[in-house]
Amino acid sequence: MSIFKIKYFTTIVLSISISLTTVCKAQESKTANDIVPEYSAPFTFGTNLGYVSSGKWNDGATGNLAAGNEQLGIEGVGANSLRLSLPEHFLEKWGYTIRVNTYKEYARLGMSEFTAFIGYPSTEHLDDATYGASASSKLFANMYEPIWADNEDSVPVNKNNYLALYVYKMVLNYGDKVKFWEVWNEPDYTNSSAAYQLEGTADSWWTRNPTPAELVNLNALFFIISEY
User: Fold this and answer.
1) Where are the beta strands (DSSP E) in the chain?
2) CB 132 within 8 A of CB 212
3) 48-61 confidence digits (pLDDT tens)
């Protein structure tokens, strides 16, 4: 019986040792390979607010609908947590504090234990390699640059490692507000039937690596190896 495990994921955080819960200047920190903190908080009912166009539906209105707002007489649907997004391209354009007050308002409505999915670089920080796909990668350029700066810069992260710098600045502003960090949304999403074929089926992902073209949310390499 083969046991599949992710060995390389060139999309994301291969060697990033920045803690998403505690940003510090120390260049040595524990990762999920060393310890998985126990989660003992109560179960929450969460929701994805999804995309809303400008006008009636905005952050405040959707938050009120999800959690309720006693001041406005809105009962809400009973959600007490949210899964939100903090993409790099958005924060780079509007500033890293753009959502701070929004998180505070959600907390005022009684919601907590937020999840945030992250990634999605700005055009300036995008890896434009194609890796054999018909379109360029959707990942960060310079992901294999050193994470930490080698000088006494006021920012301890290497500014040429765009992913590391993004995570550092984001956690400075949202580290006390977000409980769970989802690195990329559905990185293994695919339209290829090879992904769900049974073991032993020719050309299935059981017997080969996914190609960049099959990983439509990445357009980049995602290596899987099998162990027996």
Assistant:
1) 3-9, 46-48, 81-85, 114-118, 178-183, 222-227
2) yes
3) 887 777 677 888 88
